[in-house]
Prior knowledge:
By secondary structure, the protein is of the alpha/beta class.
Amino acid sequence: xxxxxxxxxxxxxxxxxxxxxxxxxxxxxxxxxxxxxxxxxxxxxxxxxxxxxxxxxxxxxxxxxxxxxxxxxxxxxxxxxxxxxxxxxxxxxxxxxxxxxxxxxxxxxxxxxxxxxxxxxxxxxxxxxxxxxxxxxxxxxxxxxxxxxxxxxxxxxxxxxxxxxxxxxxxxxxxxxxxxxxxxxxxxxxxxxxxxxxxxxxxxxxxxxxxxxxxxxxxxxxxxxxxxxxxxxxxxxxxxxxxxxxxxxxxxxxxxxxxxxxxxxxxxxxxxxxxxxxxxxxxxxxxxxxxxxxxxxxxxxxxxxxxxxxxxxxxxxxxxxxxxxxxxxxxxxxxxxxxxxxxxxxxxxxxxxxxxxxxxxxxxxxxxxxxxxxxxxxxx
Length: 380
Ligand SMILES: Nc1ncnc2c1ncn2[C@@H]1O[C@H](COP(=O)(O)OP(=O)(O)OP(=O)(O)O)[C@@H](O)[C@H]1O
Ligand SMILES: [Mg+2]
């Protein structure tokens, strides 16, 4: 049997360890509290979901949410009572199977292989494939300091990834008040994220398609900023999180350009990200600011280990610090060192063209060369 990813939804330790102990060893088990179910489903895309009952009726609610948002997930409910009326409700809510704890734990262990078979074949029909597409990766580009190159690098990253692979790539500009990406690409009077606000609660692939703009060379898909402070106010954290979760279901990669301020929207986007690329320049202010941001991350419990990586930008021989200096000072890996190339970058930006226009491009500005090399290694 292949190794499956299993998500156990519970707020209590005992029952979950009992269940875990009865599972074959090769499976990967993740635990999550009720409040974080949505994020975790999107992030790990489990093959099976176990919901463990609590005193309240929340179990049913959770199953309904899982089935409404992630249709094809195979859900098993674990109850502490033989209350058949309640259990019928659970099945009606969309659970595929249920077991009563602790009496039926052995029965569960015996039936486990056939449950897996059913879940997998059900998934092959329709659901799980679409569900699996939920595996799209979300990469956020962030910096506490304005002008670090967050927009240029995130956009070039998305553009190059689109050119160099067959993956579906979406770029989202979350600088809701001022935007930025559209000027780099010379797009005017554009559609934007604001088109999605009225349909936020039922957001689907079609809505997203209708709000897209395209970069004309690579056909990179873009969700641009409304560049409107008033519209920006309507986009709250619930919108941001719904947006990112929906997008990751339809794209292989979602690349996000974040604003420099640490608002609740920024925080939400960071929480939804698989990777956070922190853009740093090689000077003391940039570095000091990062240390403050890192403290803030800790206070907000934004997980940074194995998630945060540096992109060092504007690397040149005149830098005050060297990339190696950073290595001694912080423990995060440096994903990319992008060189400074004022002329090369300006030549493209001034005419509203991306740094790389086709796979065959020979003469690229230096940061675009560095990005391409990084992405080629990353795609291997
Ligand atoms: N490696 C580089 N070489 C040359 N110019 C660069 C490089 N990186 C960024 N720039 C230039 O620096 C300026 C700031 O870049 P960008 O707008 O991407 O930064 P930002 O962090 O998004 O800033 P903002 O605070 O405006 O959001 C732009 O004019 C960009 O073209
Ligand atoms: Mg910017």
